[in-house]
Automatic annotation (TrEMBL):
UBA domain residues: 320-359
InterPro entries: DDI1_N, Peptidase_aspartic_DDI1-type, Peptidase_aspartic_dom_sf, UBA, UBA-like_sf, Ubiquitin-like_dom, Ubiquitin-like_domsf
Species the sequence originates in: Boothiomyces macroporosus
Family, as annotated: Belongs to the DDI1 family.
Keyword check for Cytoplasm: yes
Predominant localisation class: cytoplasm
Region (Disordered), start-end ranges: 293-323
Protein name: DNA damage-inducible protein 1
Gene from which this protein is expressed: DDI1
Stretches assigned to the Ubiquitin-like domain: 1-70
Transmembrane portions of the chain: none
Length: 359
């Protein structure tokens, strides 16, 4: 059925609803459509306040094409929410805000996220006012230091904003270059590193590839660079299959590396290899060997989980909603926090929550 929602300032919106929908879920739809939080709404039908949020539209006596008045409790609207609505209502202001601070585009559609950003801006503004306040002595050294530090922070923030606007790709993660090779019949994912002088293999990989018996420990020692690592020795000659060709290679067996096999500059120069980033291949002896995509990388090369997502702390926070409902909504491609926020706004109704998430 169709109903009309109007506000005291003359806004009019039409909604398609089900007669068995509860008033609380109707408020959630109004929040999604008109940006009024459910806690700030008072709905009136024929002059009567709809005070029972659990009542259905049918039980409340609302019929096809009826008009409901929504009044907003001024005290329930925070300063951040008032600013958010003002920006949403002014396309020019919204465009300017997003240009100056790109994360604002997403935050404008998320009241909680916007409030966090707004409060942080307020806090920074307060700190700035404190920093530029001049003491009784205008040449006070501490006061001048605070002003200098604030100017420095502003320059950094401006630099960050310019980078995010003009070079957003610089904030992405760059994956390292790996290729598939075979050593003595055993497949290995080799890290291609033109900054390493020699081709290096870990003792564990040498054991797995059954070449450890060829180790010459007279070449043992300590490698120094960024930190130190113990060199166990050298394997003077073995075959590595790269693509469709077999290449002779000498290996330095070294502890303390996070890679099984490091394809170093010695091999790259010996075979006049070319790292072609345009085609994303290693060109060697005329053959193009593709670099591995991110999901094909060995576990050691993948980006580690943030501290709050490590296995010891990976348990999701408890929720008053059934985990099965949360998992079903998360499977649609949104975060757990967004799902819980949508369920809060929808009064626990998963269908309404899904509508809020993908409106």
């Amino acid at each position: 059925m169709r109903i009309t929602i109007t506000t005291e300032d003359g806004q009019i919106h039409t909604l398609d609803v089900d007669q068995d929908m509860e008033i609380l879920n109707l408020k959630a739809l109004i929040e999604a459509d008109m940006q009024f939080s459910t806690t700030s709404q008072q709905l009136y039908h024929n002059g009567n306040l709809l005070s029972n949020d659990k009542a259905t539209i049918r039980n409340a006596g609302i019929a096809q094409d009826d008009i409901l008045l929504v009044r907003i409790l001024a005290q329930a609207i925070s300063q951040a929410e008032q600013v958010r609505r003002r920006i949403l209502a002014d396309p020019t202001l919204r465009f300017q805000m997003i240009q100056q601070y790109p994360p604002m585009e997403q935050a404008l559609n998320n009241p909680q996220q916007f409030e966090r950003i707004f409060n942080e801006m307020q806090r920074q503004a307060q700190m700035q006012r404190q920093a530029i306040s001049v003491s009784d002595d205008p040449f006070d050294i501490e006061s001048q230091r605070r002003i200098e530090e604030e100017i420095r922070k502003q320059n950094i923030q401006q630099n960050l904003g310019n980078a995010m606007e003009h070079h957003p790709e610089s904030f992405g993660r760059v994956i390292m270059l790996y290729i598939n090779v075979t050593v003595n019949g055993h497949p290995v994912k080799a890290f291609v590193d033109s900054g390493a002088q020699a081709t290096i293999m870990s003792p564990e990989c040498a054991e797995k590839c059954h070449v450890m018996h060829l180790l010459d420990d007279r070449f043992a020692g300590i490698a120094k660079g960024v930190g130190t690592a113990k060199i166990l020795g050298r394997i003077h000659s073995t075959q590595i299959k790269v693509g469709n060709q077999f290449l002779h290679c000498s290996l330095t067996v070294m502890e303390g590396k996070d890679v099984d096999l490091l394809f170093g500059l010695d091999m790259l120069k010996r075979h006049q290899a070319c790292i072609d980033l345009e085609k994303n291949v290693l060109r060697i002896n005329g053959e193009e060997v593709p670099f591995l995509s991110e999901h094909e990388l060995p576990d050691k090369a993948k980006e580690p989980l943030p501290k709050d997502q490590t296995p010891e702390s990976s348990q999701p926070p408890p929720s008053k909603y059934p985990e099965e409902v949360i998992k079903n909504l998360v499977a649609l491609g949104v975060s757990r926090e967004e799902v819980i926020s949508a369920l809060d706004a929808a009064g626990g109704n998963p269908d309404v929550a899904a509508g809020l998430l993908f409106q």
